[in-house]
Amino acid sequence: MKPTTMRDPTAQAASALRPRRAPPASLEGLTVGLMDIGKMRGEEFIDRLETLFRERGIATRRYRKPTNTRTAPLELLQKIAAECQVVAIALSDCGSCTSCSTHDLVDLDRRGLAGVSILTTEFRNPFAMQCQAIGFDGASVYVPHPMQNRTTAELHAFADDVFEQVLGQIGGQHGIFYPQ
User: Fold this and answer.
1) 3-class DSSP state of 71
2) Of 9, 47, 50, 168, which is least surrounded by CB within 10 A?
3) Tally of domains within the chain
4) In a domain, 12, yes or no
5) d(Cα 43, Cα 155) in Å, to the nearest integer?
6) Range of the domain at 87
7) Residue 73 falls inside a structural domain
8) pLDDT by residue (tens digit) across 6-27?
9) For the chain, what is the total number of helices (H) and then of strands (E)?
């Protein structure tokens, strides 16, 4: 009989959290990647974030994962890293998408992008536990849960409510660029 190989699903556990990439002091002249993880209604939330960034004179680029239940394809991560300097990943509201988005955040951090994951409040603890398990001190911002039954106006209001936090996590906290 051929021996069976078993894999430990916790093999990525780390005893210490690696600090995330420090955000730049200012977003002036930088491009923010807005990564839509592919959840229903996430696009409407990101539409509003994009508008808010542009109102501040901050350039954005939009990206969308093919599915929220897997990590982003390597080509997509490479494209984001080549075209942007910081990233906001949205909008996680379940366990598998929170896990995958956290891995995407780590991957982009390793590629040189300061980033933030935007999740619903129900997934505050799972995000923290995922970060602990993979040894990454990831940045996060939270909006109310659930999202799918919200109106577009509510989703836009949630984006308005967290926008300053998002700026603070990706680099706008120190010297936000406001056009004259």
Assistant:
1) coil
2) 9
3) 1
4) no
5) 10
6) 25-170
7) yes
8) 554 555 555 688 999 999 999 9
9) 5, 7
